[in-house]
Amino acid sequence: MPKDPTTHGSHGSMPRLLEIMRRLRDPDSGCPWDIEQDFGTIAPYTIEEAYEVADAIERADWDELRGELGDLLLQVVFHAQIADDRGLFAFDDVANAIADKMVARHPHVFGDESRDKSAEQQTRDWEAIKAAERADKAQTGVLDGVAVGLPALLRALKLQKRAARVGFDWPETTQVLDKIAEESAELVEAAETLPQDKIEEEMGDLLFVMTNLARHLEVDPEAALRRANAKFTRRFARIEDWLAEAGKTPEQSDLAEMDALWNRAKAAERTPD
């Protein structure tokens, strides 16, 4: 009996993956779980896989990156198959759309424009092309087209960058710091006197202006927070190790002891063994 080229890998990498997804979604012979999915149920997995790609890059784990990129590619194929099943568009339409966009946005590579320009000029040209694309879609507002489904921190950064392009921005970083002090005071007052929804609102205002400070300092707030998360995880793991050496768990410790061990972990990072 001949081998199935889909399951044995001789079908060509991209055609093989597309055929696997088509068979998974086949209403008569496919996988019940895959058949039941729609754009909305798959979207959270798509976001998760994108973050796992970023995590592999952060850790410089290239073998894992290969696998995570495959997982992310599967999400694109899954969405395209759902669209194909509904008669909306196919995977080739997705690939051609991004290819057309890249050609249109790089006239200095694929057209007659000169490549003799700085990276800053290219960024300005890129934004001008994107603005023209938004106008073609009747997205005339400055903030139109900033996806609502983006992670909140990333969306805040994009909204602020858009507003800054038309001059709605603090000219000095010190003014952002003043605003942070103002929002912090309002949050403290809200926590003491206002209901939970107002506390949440004030917390959001503070996070929004903190993102603005990162932008003014030319810091990627998402990358900065990922580093802080990694540092916290690393130091807390050392606390657990030291407690284990003493025959204890964190639950059997207390704040004073763990805080002292935290400071020990900080000092160890400043002066490696």
Automatic annotation (TrEMBL):
<comment type="similarity">
    <text>Belongs to the nucleoside triphosphate pyrophosphohydrolase family.</text>
</comment>
<dbReference type="GO" id="GO:0046052">
    <property type="term" value="P:UTP catabolic process"/>
</dbReference>
<protein>
    <recommendedName>
        <fullName>Nucleoside triphosphate pyrophosphohydrolase</fullName>
        <ecNumber>3.6.1.8</ecNumber>
    </recommendedName>
</protein>
<feature type="domain" description="NTP pyrophosphohydrolase MazG-like">
    <location>
        <begin position="176"/>
        <end position="235"/>
    </location>
</feature>
<dbReference type="InterPro" id="IPR048011">
    <property type="entry name" value="NTP-PPase_MazG-like_C"/>
</dbReference>
<dbReference type="Pfam" id="PF03819">
    <property type="entry name" value="MazG"/>
</dbReference>
<dbReference type="GO" id="GO:0046061">
    <property type="term" value="P:dATP catabolic process"/>
</dbReference>
<dbReference type="GO" id="GO:0006950">
    <property type="term" value="P:response to stress"/>
</dbReference>
<feature type="domain" description="NTP pyrophosphohydrolase MazG-like">
    <location>
        <begin position="38"/>
        <end position="110"/>
    </location>
</feature>
<dbReference type="InterPro" id="IPR048015">
    <property type="entry name" value="NTP-PPase_MazG-like_N"/>
</dbReference>
<dbReference type="GO" id="GO:0046047">
    <property type="term" value="P:TTP catabolic process"/>
</dbReference>
<dbReference type="GO" id="GO:0046081">
    <property type="term" value="P:dUTP catabolic process"/>
</dbReference>
<dbReference type="GO" id="GO:0046076">
    <property type="term" value="P:dTTP catabolic process"/>
</dbReference>
<dbReference type="InterPro" id="IPR004518">
    <property type="entry name" value="MazG-like_dom"/>
</dbReference>
<dbReference type="GO" id="GO:0047693">
    <property type="term" value="F:ATP diphosphatase activity"/>
</dbReference>
<dbReference type="InterPro" id="IPR011551">
    <property type="entry name" value="NTP_PyrPHydrolase_MazG"/>
</dbReference>
<dbReference type="GO" id="GO:0006203">
    <property type="term" value="P:dGTP catabolic process"/>
</dbReference>
